[in-house]
Specification:
Pfam families: TPR_16, TPR_19, TPR_8
Organism: Algivirga pacifica
Number of helices: 25
Strand content: under 5%
Protein name: Tetratricopeptide repeat-containing protein
Largest sheet: none
InterPro entries: TPR-like_helical_dom_sf, TPR_rpt, Ycf3
Keywords: Repeat, Signal, TPR repeat
Number of strands: 0
Helix content: over 70%
Distance between the termini: 69 Å
Amino acid sequence: MKRILPLALALVTSLFISLQAQAQVQELIDRSQFMVENNRYEDAIIMLNNAIKIEPNNAELSYKKASIYSSMARFPEAIQALEEATEKDPAYTEAFGLMGDLYSQSKDVAKAIESYDKAFKASKEIEFQYHYKLKIIDQLESYGMIRDLKKHVEDAKKIIGDTFELSYYAAMYYNEVGDHEKALELSEKIVQDIQPVTGTEMYYEQYCIALINLREFETVRKLQDELPGNITFHLQDFTDTYYLSLANAYTSIMDYDESIKALEIAIGLNPLNDEAAQLHKKLVSMKDKESDKVIDAYIKTLASEKNIADKSKKLLSIAQLLFEAGDFSGTVEYINQYQELSLRNARDINVVFMRASAEMQANENGLAIEQVSKIVRNPQFSSKQKVTFYLLLGVAYKKAGDYDAAEQALKNAYAGAYKNVVKHEFKAIRKLRGAQPQ
């Protein structure tokens, strides 16, 4: 009996101390909350740090501290506090979720996805599992990583079943990887089951992407006629005028192949678009194989030509014919000979531009691209000329894989008739970035 009494007393004392510590921690939490409500964030952090000294293994205290740092936009400190919280409680779903949000705001997509995935795995509730899968999908979509969508879409379907939202992302994935028939199957089911109201534009967009790639132009035309204006306003990228604007822009930088592709779609969407038809006819005729005979004739007379002016004309004619025939490396070779004949030839801005376009299409950025990058800083050229130069540079840098430089050049080309093509090129770059290994 004498031994039991001291033990009981020790247990009571321990319980009293524990309750007292809990009361102190709760008081510090309450005071911290009061500080936050009065915008005294630093004082709130001090209160929580004091609480953590009392209960160092309390993950919720670290989470609260992270939330305050987040409100102060002090993301590194917030993330550090969240890491402390998840070390104390490896199944702290909300902490991983907030960590994902902070990395997302910091545009660190890889860490954001990693954090959301940890939140997904830590959560035991279906609602939250689906929520974090959608967070991952949203990150992938926002950064153009569409090829990585499939796994997460399938995971989400296992949790909650099929939805319009998940079918939309699946259609996006199949459009991205070139399986437009599967994308059409999915997106067609969606648009058949929804009302065309504001907020549904994205579903029609994936449907139109599939239709355009499958050359189902009549269906696109019919859809444009039937949908209300609030929807078609967001589907202007699927009209003949849009593709004609792309064609004109690519023609201005002498990228005739891209222009012809755009024109074929424009004519498919509207066979009565005479401007598109005439430009298409003109560009296609440039690839006449009979030009080979003319080129051969010029080349045979070059060696005996002594007059610099006449030789320059022949060299330039050969370069132009080779360019129109799509022999861009040959174009650069003969322009190089042309430019070496005289200083005047070397300074001919039209020839520099053609060489730059040839380098761009041969994906061999060289002297001319470098020259154009300097020309755009020359005040003697008009704004209209400069935006064309910038568009050429943007496409050239994109093809070379220098996406940062491409985007910077394209921003400078965003004006007037080039707005559509710049947005089109930005989408292409986003797609290329998303296809890169992370």
